[in-house]
């Protein structure tokens, strides 16, 4: 069996990644490499240096930036394209803004299906029939409250919103957080009323902790890196039947059911 994908027949999922993100490619590639499937990730980047709601930060997320990036991914014949970032959760918009962004990306990409981490997270919660959640993030108090407001506005019940004691800056430093610190924040978000914990940052490497913490806490954990790939796999029609996806948590296991 070859250790490399068959590029003649491989299906390709395109991801638009913040330029200061150092977690998405490594973790997404690791998950795909563990599957018995001929699927490869294709990445392109947009300039994102800061995460915030100030004018400079907001200007990084202009729709034109995403449509241009989506067009680049069409050159590699991707079957689906996703924005791998959580800006839709903290920019003060509702879900319709991300739906409009996905449509604009798809239009620019010649009709290729497009989505975002925000849309994927809501889709996962609906897929799992979960409305009661808590949030674990590495963000500032202001951004944490924005994420809380977003999910509350989409009629989810947010029972806790837990953040790190100090938000790493600049954005690339978030990926350097030790796993024990990430785990501590997630465990604090495990309140009795919640049925799922949302780990909402694609530069915070929580994916490798998901399966163990789900077993320990008896809660579903939806982390942003994992859920974006999960949605991409669904978009290209991946059927995980017969695969052992338990190492990536309950959400991925649902692909094999």
Automatic annotation (TrEMBL):
InterPro entries found in the cross-reference section: Iso_Racemase_Enz_sf, MaiA/AMDase
Xref: Gene3D superfamilies: 3.40.50.12500
Cross-referenced Pfam families: Amdase
PANTHER family: BLR3294 PROTEIN
Entry protein name: Asp/Glu/hydantoin racemase
């Amino acid at each position: 069996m070859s250790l490399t994908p068959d590029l003649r027949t491989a299906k390709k999922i395109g991801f638009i990644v913040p330029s200061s993100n150092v977690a998405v490619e490594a973790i997404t590639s690791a998950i795909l490499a563990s599957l018995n499937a001929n699927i490869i990730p294709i990445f392109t980047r947009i300039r994102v240096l800061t995460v915030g709601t100030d004018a400079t930060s907001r200007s990084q997320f202009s729709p034109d930036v995403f449509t241009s990036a989506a067009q680049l991914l069409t050159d590699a014949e991707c079957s689906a394209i996703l924005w791998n970032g959580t800006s839709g959760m903290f920019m003060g918009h509702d879900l319709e803004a991300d739906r409009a962004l996905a449509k604009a990306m798809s239009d620019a990409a010649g009709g290729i299906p497009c989505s975002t981490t925000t849309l994927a997270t809501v889709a996962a919660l609906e897929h799992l029939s979960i409305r009661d959640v808590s949030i674990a993030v590495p963000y500032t108090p202001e951004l944490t409250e924005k994420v809380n407001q977003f999910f509350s506005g989409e009629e989810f019940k947010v029972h806790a919103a837990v953040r790190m004691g100090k938000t790493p800056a600049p954005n690339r430093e978030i990926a350097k957080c030790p796993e024990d610190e990430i785990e501590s924040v997630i465990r604090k978000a495990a309140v009795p009323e919640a049925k799922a914990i949302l780990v909402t940052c694609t530069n915070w490497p929580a994916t490798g902790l998901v399966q163990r913490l789900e077993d320990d806490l008896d809660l579903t954990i939806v982390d942003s890196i994992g859920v974006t790939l999960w949605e991409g796999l669904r978009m290209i029609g991946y059927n995980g039947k017969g695969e052992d996806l338990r190492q990536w948590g309950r959400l991925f296991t649902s692909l094999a059911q």
